[in-house]
Amino acid sequence: MELTGLDLRFPAVLVVGLLVAVVATVAVTRHLARRSAHATAAVANTSALTALPEYRRALRTHRIRMAVLAASAVLLGGAALVGAARPVDTTVERPETRNRDIMLCLDISGSMAAYDAELVSTFKRLVTRFEGERIGLVIFNSSAATVFPLTDDYDFINEELDVAGRALAGDPDLESFFAGTFNGRGTSLIGDGLATCVSSFDRIDTQRPRSLVFATDNHLAGRPIIDVVEAGELAKAKGVRVYGLNPEEDGVDREAVEMRQVVEGTAGRYFAMSDTSAIGGIVDAVQAQEAALIDSSARALQTDNPVVPITLAGLGLVGVIGASRRWSS
């Protein structure tokens, strides 16, 4: 944070006010001069009066009081003008935020619905503790569809995750949620789904750590355009760390071994659903990944600072009241 000093929000008020004060002073001075010239009358033998010590003392006191009154009035008026011009402190702030991107990539074939719903529910609770993280959601079966892109609008994220949870739980009114995921041939085209999710991250913003939660039954049925190994290489090239959840692991099968190699090759972790802490483990692993410290755009903050004009106006007012009372007495 950098303080650039005191500034005026409406400097034109001060300029206009000073011009008005100068014009008013000139006008009043001329008026008083003309009035004094017309009111002049000769009085004889005044030297004896003006030579008296009491007269000289009273005249000196009067002049001092008038000078104090004039100075106080100028101080009061000037402080009021400065206050009307709104003095502000201008501060340039360059905030730093810790950010990361998290993409949920869910296989929505029939055997995955319950696990997907649990993952969505867990992340919905997790969003309440996020600050700066961006979340996105992609679903796939024979083809992939983006439910919502990476965003940090948490109200929107919660609404979309709520809809996803209800759809995955079998709400018949939300069948449209799965639109766009049946445009290919086959089911659970894992490589295509993973590649689509990886490609959903920004192409430019590489400062933010990227995590991809990849849940699939790992049962390929069809011919994908990109196989899972190629998709894993794409993730590595883009700096995406994949956390894989495989609910359908049956012993040490070839597909499970391949999926483990792919996700661990991205510096991510593999979880079998036989592990009762799998979903919690994914969440903990994603949170443990250190977020990047990123400089946000500089912004100027203006804060009202009326202390000086208020203090000066108060002093001027005290001077005007005090000098007026003594003078009137």
UniProtKB/TrEMBL annotation:
Q: Name one Pfam family in it.
A: VWA
Q: Does the keyword Cell cycle apply?
A: no
The entry's keywords:
Membrane, Transmembrane, Transmembrane helix
Q: InterPro entries given for it?
A: VWF_A, vWFA_dom_sf
What PROSITE patterns does the record point to? Answer: VWFA
**Which segments constitute the VWFA domain?**
101-286
Membrane-spanning ranges:
12-29, 66-85
Which protein are we looking at? von Willebrand factor type A domain-containing protein
Q: Say which species the protein is native to.
A: Humibacillus xanthopallidus
